[in-house]
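Table 4 source record.
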Amino acid sequence: MGNPYARMIKFIQLEMKQLIRSKWLQIVTILFVVTFTSVLMIQQIAMPDAEGFTRQSAAMLNVLLFLLPLFILTIGSMSLAADRESGWLNLLKTYPMSNGKYIFTKWIGLFNVFLFITLLAITLSYMMGSFFGGISLNGPFIVFILILLLLFTSLSIFVGVIAKNRLHALALALGVWSMITLILSYVLMAVGTIISENLLKTFISLSIHINPLEWMRFSYFVFTDQSAVLGPAFYELVKFYDSTVGLFYYSLFTALWGVSPLLLATYLLKRR
């Protein structure tokens, strides 16, 4: 039967090879690396880095929060749908591999590939930025990137499981991305014009917790000590998450966002 851990590692390696060979991923890699590097270089030339939340920080944050979720959701969900369409998933079921292990290998493979793409973009930005005064990244920002990758690879796995085929997966991924990046924000702005200020604060807090994108944006400002950018409306929420109890709840809620999609994906896959 062989060592189950060695077998899982082989499946993870195989998954990464399949992803790397994908023309879609190759296109996404080029787009992300070029866009990320270009935006940072333009901001660096226009306004050299300064203390606090600079244009460079804003550019880096916006590119990561706008493009990474889009690329991860589309590539990840289509990868799972392709396994089902091609019969690869049925072939894997002939091996002593549970649905949970299959989901885990897909998740790890997807995370590793996008981690490599992100590190490639950051490395290239560092190399080019050295000619224009340099680019700085602190520890919390690195942790932010890792959590962002973990959360959205999990979400992409869930989207891929509920999709019927690759076209359906692409449509669902774009729908989810549009919802978390645009629609929920516009709904909140519209609601904010007709409700009281106190009720609006409640809705803002709720939107942060139910939207993984806004959760990551909020996390960045809080844990890089730049929460002043959020404004006075977030004072109480920032104060809570700055505390020891708040940090515990933050870790718990973040883990919930990361694990829940994988558990739901495993459950739905078993029912098919």
